[in-house]
Amino acid sequence: MTAQPSIPDPKSASIRGALPSDSLRRQILVFAALNLGLIAVYAVIKLGFALSSETTNLGVFLTLGAGFTAQALLLLALALQPRLSTPRSLTAIVWASVMLNSGLVTALSMLTRGQDNQYYILMVLPVLEAAFTLDLYSTISIILIANFFTFFSIYTLDADEYIEAGASSLIHTLMGVIVWLLVNNLRQRERQLRGNLKELEETRERLLAEEKLAAVGRLSGAIAHEIRNPVAMICSSLATAARLNPGHEERDQMFSIAASEAARLERLTSDFLAYARPRVAQSGPANVADTLGYVAAVAAAYAADRGVTVVVNAEAALEGCFDSGQIQQALLNLVLNALEAGAPGAPVLLTARNGGGLLRLEVSDRGGPIAPATTARIFEPFFTTKSSGTGLGLAIARNIARAHGGDLRLACNEPGQVTFALELPQTANGTSRR
Does the pLDDT at position 26 exceed 90? Predict the structure, then answer.
């Protein structure tokens, strides 16, 4: 059940828990830059008045210049000093900016005593900065400071100015509190979202662990099933042979069955070890046509027994970067599958294509299509539709492809054509059709 956002505690909503330090530092940098720009605007406006009139207040210029310099130094220190990224340092910088503007407003108000001035606007940015970065009590404190200087800057002027100052103070208060509430609500939601994401990640890890356990269970069951059958046949054959007299024809037949099942058990064990503990690919320069030609030569006798041929289609100069032994093993598994599943008399094609950063080795036959129920599980270990298959050929071939940074996929599954594509990167990295 998702937790509902809680009402924030003003005492706990401090700068320490509001935002990550990097985000908070960027916000304070933005406010410092805006503050620097605001002071510069005041200086430019004052310079324009000075150029258009005969009266010039040198003290105002000097004060604005000092404020601009101090704010620039604060901005540079924050931008150039990574050590100023701790919550305590950032809090101190926010208060330093508030005090800087407060001192600047005080000095400017005293220099322009009895005149109509708007320097209290310099307190707007500190209020917004506090609302973004500090807790509620600190924000209210800065609002009160801003309101004080709003009235201080119009001291000795007429009553209308006090009404205007009161309106400005109200704006400061509403703006600061509303912005703080909005920002704090966003932070509460952000914290809740981070909590939800963490919970989702933990749930994902638990599901992955459970899936691994389930996969191990399925694999163990498949191994037990595959081993049990030949072991049972061996035991039964030996027990039968033991009851028969030496030289009995059936006794020799039982020994032959036991030997055959023992060989099948050995083959199953070897295939499983090849699947469970794939060797690291020792990639190196290799001629693709030679690799495909070797696979075709090895499979030639098996193909001849079925009255078909293995045809190689690859450019003689085509080069790749892979472990020749492993790729030959993967392709041989695919070719033997194709010879068994292809149409009678139709050749099996071994093709090499190059492009798009991939070397694509294809094994095609004229059989098919493979049933959808089979294609969904075709790379699953120990899944086979053959009576004598181990169900590991395609799984081993895909492991070899992935060990090279590539993959094995069923590229075409149509009536009259089935193609498996073994895709490898052009540079070094890193099944019985059942």
Answer: no
- Rounded CA-CA distance 80/74 in Å is 10
pLDDT cut 90: percent of the chain above it? 10
Instruction: Tell me which fold the domain 221-276 belongs to.
Output: Helix Hairpins (1.10.287)
Q: Do residues 331 and 360 lie in contact, with contact meaning Cβ atoms separated by under 8 Å? A: no
Q: What is the DSSP string of 124-153?
A: HHHHHHHHHHS-HHHHHHHHHHHHHHHHHT
C-alpha pair distances (Å), 230 with each of 224, 388, 403: 11, 11, 31
**What's the whole-model pTM score?**
0.45
Q: Is 368 left (phi over 0), alpha (psi -120 to 50) or beta?
A: left
Do the Cβ atoms of 431 and 398 come closer than 8 Å? yes
User: Domain coordinates of the chain in residue numbers?
Assistant: 15-201, 221-276, 284-425
The 10 Å Cβ neighbour count of residue 369 is: 15
Kindly state the helix (H) or strand (E) to which residue 362 belongs, with its residue range: strand 358-365
Residue 191: other Cβ atoms inside 10 A: 15
The residues, any chain, with a CB within 8 Å of residue 353's CB and separated by 6 or more, are 359, 360, 362
Can you give the pLDDT at residue 17?
Answer: 47
State the Cα–Cα distance between residues 151 and 164, nearest whole angstrom. Answer: 9
Residues in a beta bridge with 352: 361
The token pair at 408 is 């094995």
- pLDDT tops 90 at residue 362: yes
Q: Dump the DSSP string for 386-426.
A: SSS--S-HHHHHHHHHHHTT-EEEEEEEETTEEEEEEEEES
- For residues 52-58, give the mean pLDDT: 59
Distance, CA of 147 to CA of 129 (rounded, Å): 16
**Virtual torsion, Cα 127, 132, 137, 141, nearest 10 deg:** -10
- Cβ pair 329, 392 in contact under 8 A: no
Q: What tens digit of pLDDT does each residue of 152-187 get?
A: 655 555 666 667 667 777 877 888 888 888 888 887
* pLDDT exceeds cutoff 50 at 234: yes
What is the β-pairing status of strands 358-365 and 417-425? antiparallel
Residue 21's pLDDT band, with cuts at 50, 70 and 90, is low
Query: Residue 69 corresponds to which tokens in the numbers above?
Result: 């310099």
Domain 284-425, CATH: 3.30.565.10
Asked whether the CA dihedral 274, 275, 276, 280 is positive or negative, the reply is positive
